[in-house]
Structure formats: C-alpha cells, structure tokens
Amino acid sequence: MSAGKNYGTVLYWGTMLGSVIVLLGSLMGLMLGLSWMPLQQQYDLLLSGQQLASVPLAQWRYYASADGVILIGLGCAILSLVPAILGSLPRLWRSGARLVAVCGLLNAALILGAVASAIN
C-alpha cells in the first residue's frame, strides 16, 4: 500500500467516525434538548458575533450533553490525522521523500500540541 493510500484510508475512516458522532450529538441537541447551553442562546451568541460561554471541560456532565458528544466527534476527526500521518511516514522515508516525512512528523507533533493546549 502506498503512503498516500494508507494516509487516505485512515483519514477517511477517522473522519467518517467523527462525523457520525457529531451527527449523533446534533440530534441529541435538536431533538432531545440535551445541550449544556440552550440552543437558542447558542445561536443568538454566534449570530451576534460573540463567543460561546466558556464551559468547564472537567465536568463529566458536559460530555454527556449534546455539546460534549459533538466535541468528542470533532476531536476524533481531528486526531485521526495523527495516525494517518504517522502511518505513512515510514514509506515516505524509504521512498526518499525525507523532507516530506520530517514535515509530516512535525505536523503530527503540532496537532498533538494544539489538542493538548486546548484541553488545558
């Protein structure tokens, strides 16, 4: 399997899983009203150009809400980039595309660093 095919396959399935989780969270919010913040209040804030209120991510109740499920789905889709990149690096290195492989490794490190800083 080529590096591009390996990367694309992992990224495709990670994004598909993330999108299904986001869809589930959206349905939970719209149909069941399980949002951390009322949906109308979220829309009003976003449409007026304001940021959503800061949610304490350490509270486990947040992850059981629709907003938390959406956040988990987005995280899954974004983090699927890391194994996709790391899985294609050995083949890129062996094929002589060493600069691309090093840039890919740096990219994976930046993604993990951004996620770690967002969690804290």
Descriptive account of the structure:
The protein has 120 residues and is mainly α. It has one domain (3-119). It has helices spanning 3-32, 39-47, 60-64, 66-79, 81-94, 98-119. Helix 1 (3-32) packs antiparallel against helix 4 and helix 1 packs antiparallel against helix 5. The termini are far apart.
What is this structure, in a nutshell?
This protein has 120 residues and is mainly alpha-helical. Helix content is 78%, strand content 0%. The longest helix is centred in the first third of the chain and has 30 residues, at 3-32.
Describe this protein with a few key phrases.
mainly alpha, 120 residues, 78% helix
Residue ranges: pLDDT <50 for 5 or more in a row?
none
Give a quick account of the main beta sheet: strands, pairing sense, barrel closure: none
Instruction: Note the total helix count.
Output: 6
Oligomerization state of this entry? single chain
Question: How are the SSEs ordered, and which strands pair?
Answer:
Elements: H1 3-32, H2 39-47, H3 60-64, H4 66-79, H5 81-94, H6 98-119
